[in-house]
Amino acid sequence: MHLQLVSTIVALAQLASCAPFLEGRDTCTTNDLNFPSGGMHGYNGIYWGFLPDDVAGTTMSHINGDSGKKASTYGRYSQISSVPYTGDQLTSVMSDVVASGAVFIPAIMPTGLKFADISTDVANQIATVLEKFTSQGVEVWLRFAHEVNYYVTQASGPSGPRYPGGTQAEFIAAWQRVHAAVASNPKILMFWSPNEDSVANLNGWWPGADYVDIVGMDVYPNPGATFASAYGAFYDGFAQQYNKHFCVGETGAANGGSVADKEAWVAQLAKSDVSAYPCYKSATWFEFYKGVDFRIVEGQSATTVTETLSNFA
Fold first, then answer.
1. Which one of the listed residues 23, 139, 170, 250 is annotated catalytic?
2. pLDDT 10s digits, 203-245
3. Core vs surface per residue 81-118: b (16+ CB within 10 A) or e
4. Helices 60-67 and 302-309, interaxial angle, to 10°?
5. Most buried residue among 56, 89, 91, 126 by CB atoms closer than 10 A?
6. Which residues act catalytically here (predicted)?
7. Active site residue 147
């Protein structure tokens, strides 16, 4: 019994010792998120990037070529459907990621494992995959189990894979194991990115300030939304409350939206005055066609692309 207690104390101490490793880079008053030199940014100073449509085979090279810009962030999805986790959906675009120079934002989704199954071994497998990118100089922001509050409530079906899930406590423990696995890599930041909800409802999914470097919330707003109406309460409740960077991990117009809807939302994020939100640093657009067209560059008319680019310096 005594030896078991000692072992438990040592294990907890080792986990806790990882928490402050990146202390300083996680505070919103710092400017060391390592955005690429010459990276795309709005007239309001917010850095901008895209989630390329992997189903259509779109690369960031395509988007950069068609926009004449250099995306600052590069999003990508990857499911943990079984173990060992090898991250093939990420490594398959490694050359495009490296060539883009963008901050890489992988959303690693536990679709085949419950939170309790994200063991130290699985966490280390995630870290090993991401190290393949950081060893080539890529900055990585890990959106582990993004939109967790949404995916655990959905049944699997034709709309896509869901999380087998578990309790909020099991999610937090899984998050902290992943954090411990990547904590020694200074080029990886942990990006907590739930789906749109109230601060009160999201508090139960909060992993703890010592384990989160960047906060954001996935919102696809209806027409007429402003930055304040979409993100203001979340920003106050997490970014401002804990002095964390606020970044938009993914967004677009509700249900794809009309061209006018999309362009109005882009302007809110990249051109409107956001000086009241100093922790807001970047946004990543969902550049997908999924039965409806979320895109603002690929497959768009020259007039639409010109209007999109009018928001960027």
1. 250
2. 999 999 999 999 999 999 999 999 999 999 999 999 999 999 9
3. eeeebebebbeebeebbeebbbbbbbbbbbbebbbeeb
4. 90
5. 126
6. 147, 250
7. yes
